């Protein structure tokens, strides 16, 4: 009988997919070799992930998603906000980026939401997008309605959590209100979203709350109730996610929109590039987050609620700017080549397991480039390392990172190998003026993995698989979440905003 029960449960899980209702993932493509879109779509399906958030409306990616049944949020770049502020241009944008994909057809792309901009009200922008965001939002919503898609495709603005805050003298969620310089505009936007039944989207990063504030207690970033609580009247907050979310709820209540739907546009934990960014800590974070979502706990001000939550992110992105920190390239729950990093309970069964890897990935031979044991002029090594690091991702070498404990020879070997792999194991790429040599002995040490680059990906049997080539979205204006589809200064904007309290004064001023 027990066997039959387990068999029935297994069949139900296979049939219905994950129990973590509302769970999705951000799919960024700022990588030297992003996996082909068809491979990524299969990866999402194999892991039961039914929602994906993009940072553009890339044609190659969207065509790969056609017929998959995966719900898709696409985006308007920040720099395009003034253009779609013109209604005719907004209609054209909707025609070219939504209508053409037959969103109501089962064989089309299931676009369910358009993100109008990305974190446009960061302080660093100095009002660059203040006057253009709301008109763009209204125009896209109107154009969707005119196209007969108003009930099918929602609109939203992914906002950084710095648009709301609690005062320094009362840093509790119930005191939450919109930031003074954007309060009138935010009030208008929120009321519009409420009146048109569209959601509010916010990005919440507990890791960055800790990273940007030396007094922030690390345990408060997690969901396992190990931190001393923040007491708000009769409510005790034991994690910053709940406190941050309820600060927003309080701000919404103050403008009579307390019931507005809220989407968590980005939430996650990096696995490298910082002493508190590693696989073990990231697993602790996701274990708590996924358990919370599975149980539908909600937050104190939204109890027993289901959230639409997009994990950040799907893959590591080894070409992103590291201006905010070396961790910026390591947010993925999968490596660049589609390998899972740690067990996750994506199915909501209470039993985390390793996610399914990307299929069809073929690697170069098991060869590594390392410092030659009898290298003569070792004084050239620093210059050689700089040359290689200018062309490869050396962030794992930072102090406290996965390769930070290597000795100088080990670090040089790591860098030489990265360059060698990125150059498709070309013999001439492992020379460095006679300092390096190729070996067939795995050079990995401890937590430091000396990777072998993937050669190609077989997508012949996949829908929209094409010839197995990589996604070209990064070369066609594809944007990561920090650049907001605008300019390199947007990455700096993120970093500066973080230092001014990305997640509201609540998380900077508390004493727990």
UniProtKB/TrEMBL annotation:
Its EC number is 3.2.1.39. Residues 463-483 are annotated as: Disordered. Residues 1-22 form the signal peptide. SUPFAM superfamilies: (Trans)glycosidases. It catalyses: Hydrolysis of (1->3)-beta-D-glucosidic linkages in (1->3)-beta-D-glucans. Belongs to the glycosyl hydrolase 17 family. This is glucan endo-1,3-beta-D-glucosidase.
